[in-house]
Design a protein that fits this description.
about 220 residues, three-stranded parallel beta sheet, about 5% strand, 12 helices
Length: about 220
């Protein structure tokens, strides 16, 4: 009998693998303090359990509010605005590295050491099973020699699809104009907003292409 199984991170966790985003947080803390420091105060809980959802609501106000206070205190507004532009560009470059570090983290997870589950093995051994997997890992392939797997969010053989499915709404985010009105030029405003938009675009999943990928897998 043909059987379709859909698996998520609970599958890897039940096999004894450390694949929750709290583990990613610990990995970042040890390997890249820059990205870790930028994210640590922006996640909604200490364990980062809502990590991907939170990526849809990142607020970079803290990164530029310091320079706005300098303007209010009478410091040179030209220099302060320039620092805002540079800071948001640096935030953009840091966030661009997210996919790279998630992939490096996944590479540290040794799926060959996963605890094989007899109940799961008994389920699949007498059926023609197909898998939709939300996981980046190769636990199915490595531990059970399964080949009929669609990794919806990609795997280590290609680009990982990481991020949120939220519609980006400007009013929920850092309002650049509030911090730069009467001080920044139009081109500076555009540059800062473009960097904010870029960050949110690279952290957003293309849901429609993912649905098409699933559709193709099922039709085949």
């Amino acid at each position: 009998m043909k059987v379709l199984l859909i698996i998520g991170n609970g599958f890897d966790l039940s096999h004894g693998l450390h694949t929750c985003y709290n583990d990613f947080k610990e990995y970042l803390y040890e390997t890249d303090s820059v990205l870790y420091d930028l994210l640590k105060n922006k996640m909604s809980d200490f364990l980062w359990s809502n990590f991907e959802e939170d990526l849809g609501y990142l607020d970079f106000s803290d990164e530029i509010s310091y320079y706005y206070r300098e303007i209010e205190d009478g410091f040179d507004s030209y220099s302060a605005v320039n620092n805002m532009v540079v800071t948001l560009y640096e935030c953009r470059k840091i966030m661009e590295s997210m996919n790279y570090f998630v992939k490096k983290w996944i590479k540290t997870i040794d799926t060959s050491k996963a605890i094989k589950r007899k109940r799961f093995f008994d389920l699949i051994k007498n059926n023609e099973c197909y898998f939709l997997s939300f996981n980046y890992t190769d636990t199915l392939e490595k531990k059970y020699n399964i080949r009929r797997v669609c990794h919806i969010h990609g795997n280590l053989k290609g680009k990982l699809i990481l991020g949120h499915g939220e519609k980006y709404i400007h009013t929920k985010e850092c309002n650049i104009k509030d911090y730069t009105d009467n001080y920044a030029t139009f081109s500076e405003l555009i540059e800062m907003q473009n960097n904010i938009d870029f960050i949110h675009n690279i952290l957003k999943k293309d849901v429609y292409s993912l649905l098409k990928k699933i559709e193709n897998f099922l039709s085949n």
